[in-house]
Specification:
Number of strands: 11
Distance between the termini: 78 Å
Strand order of the largest sheet: 6-5-4-7-10-11
Shape: flat
Helix content: 40-55%
Order of helices and strands: HHHHHHHEEHHEEHEEHEEEHEHEH
CATH superfamily of the largest domain: von Willebrand factor, type A domain
CATH topology of the largest domain: Rossmann fold
CATH class of the largest domain: Alpha Beta
């Protein structure tokens, strides 16, 4: 058998950190319409050209390739003319896009020629649309981005992992954290062996002492033979029901959560994208509950002119629209969803940046008023907050604005339902949401 050797040509993709690339592209993959605020549902940021430009920026400023590789391929050490280097760069980007498709992070690009022919036959746009090729973000990519957001947020908080929800109550569980207690009917039979044996030994020693005292009193100072004393000390330990001791663990309760996400137009206006960070936090919370709190439930509600429940897996794909803020309708839908849950705790996590400005009337029409805090809208919203409080549902509000009137409104909501009000920014939202979720049971139960 003969072997033919050839010169090894390194492939730049061998040095590509795909996880780091996906992190750098997260703003594009989770885009909410910020780049086109007047038409957020247009999808202009999901084109292959937008992906191409984002990868190009990540290559040179994102650190997804080692600096020495960048310098060797496109720096002063690069071989070839300027046109050849540019062509090599384009080929590298196309290879990266192809690898993203093969890895299942984005869906393959559609067939341009077939789509163009179909549009011509249907009388639609023709040659001018040839460059507008769109891509779709897959569930695998969204799941990875949720995991990455959770890891980054917990890492910034100094937590290596998250445990279950803790309360002040003690119960007989698997994890031992409290003093042992005598076994009672209904307790988990998590026997504390040391305490149980000590109880049995103490009881038997006391019984022997009482027996010896009785025999001495009846026989005038009777003393057992050495062989009899040896038999008593080497006999087995007889454990009785009254000796049983069980270990106590911290009571770990279950929680049902509805995440209310404001997708009104104001979430991407005023020069700041608030919706993309909110989506990232929502995905991190969903990943946390699915992996660390399997007994908990999480449902998502979008509120805008009205309100709607969406599957958790669709959180990364939602976008804002030209909507007002119908907070009352969102709370009403969240309350109905939580009333069906049989959990120790039920709560609403509401992420918003604006005041209630819309209301669904009994006939189905939407009443809208974006100027100030409308007394009619506010009164109806507080009525729904009161209904949540009567149902035992806690509302935690994360406000991405600091207007004086909004601060007063949110604080009153928190006071009415024993919840909390956080006034944060898109950059600190995740820390507040996750820390509140992991710590709230210790502070609110009993």
């Amino acid at each position: 058998m003969r072997f033919k050797y050839s010169k090894y040509v390194p492939n730049p993709l061998d040095e590509l950190d795909m996880d780091e690339l996906m992190s750098k592209l997260s703003d594009l993959l989770l885009s909410s319409g910020f780049d086109n605020p007047w038409d957020p549902s247009g999808g202009m940021d999901r084109t292959m050209q937008a992906l191409h430009d984002a990868i190009l920026e990540a290559l040179f400023s994102g650190g997804v390739l080692p600096p020495d590789v960048i310098e060797q391929l496109f720096g002063d050490q690069a071989e070839g003319s300027e046109d050849e280097i540019r062509e090599q760069l384009e080929q590298l980007i196309q290879q990266i896009i192809q690898r993203m498709q093969e890895s299942g992070y984005i869906s393959p690009a559609p067939d341009l020629q077939a789509e163009q022919a179909r549009r011509r036959q249907g009388g639609g746009p023709g040659e001018g649309d040839a460059g507008e090729v769109h891509f779709e973000v897959t569930d695998k990519a969204l799941d990875f981005l949720g995991y990455k957001a959770l890891r980054d947020l917990l890492g910034s908080l100094g937590h290596s992992s998250a445990g279950r929800h803790d309360t002040r109550d003690l119960s007989t569980g698997v994890e031992t954290s409290g003093a042992p207690k005598p076994y009672e009917f209904g307790d988990t039979l998590n026997i504390d062996a040391t305490a149980t044996i000590l109880n049995a030994v103490s009881r038997q020693a006391a019984e022997r002492a009482e027996g010896e005292a009785a025999r001495r009193a009846g026989q005038g100072g009777y003393q057992p033979e050495p062989e009899q004393a040896l038999a008593v000390t080497t006999s087995g330990i007889d454990i009785d029901y009254q000796d049983l001791m069980v270990a106590q663990g911290e009571y770990q309760s279950s929680c049902a959560t509805v995440l209310m996400l404001d997708c009104s137009h104001s979430m991407i206006l005023y020069g700041e994208d608030r919706f993309t960070p909110a989506k990232r936090v929502a995905m991190a919370l969903a990943h946390l509950i699915r992996t660390q709190y399997p007994g908990d439930t999480l449902q998502a509600v979008l509120f805008h002119d009205s309100a709607e429940e969406i599957p958790i897996r669709e959180l990364g794909r939602v976008r804002v629209g030209p909507y007002y803020t119908n907070t009352r309708e969102g709370l009403r839908l969240a309350r109905r969803l939580l009333e069906k849950q049989r959990k120790d705790m039920r709560q609403i996590v509401m992420i918003t940046d604006g005041k209630p400005s819309a209301l669904t009337q009994p006939d189905g029409r939407i009443y809208k008023n974006a100027f100030g805090l409308d007394p009619f809208v506010i009164a109806e919203t507080f009525a729904e907050v009161s209904a949540c409080a009567k149902a035992g549902i806690m509302i935690n509000t994360f406000m991405l604005a600091r207007d004086y009137d909004l601060v007063a409104f949110v604080r009153r909501v928190a006071a009415m339902c024993r919840g909390k009000a956080y006034f944060t920014t898109p950059y600190t939202l995740g820390q507040y949401v996750l820390m509140d979720y992991m710590d709230k049971k210790t502070k609110t139960v009993h």
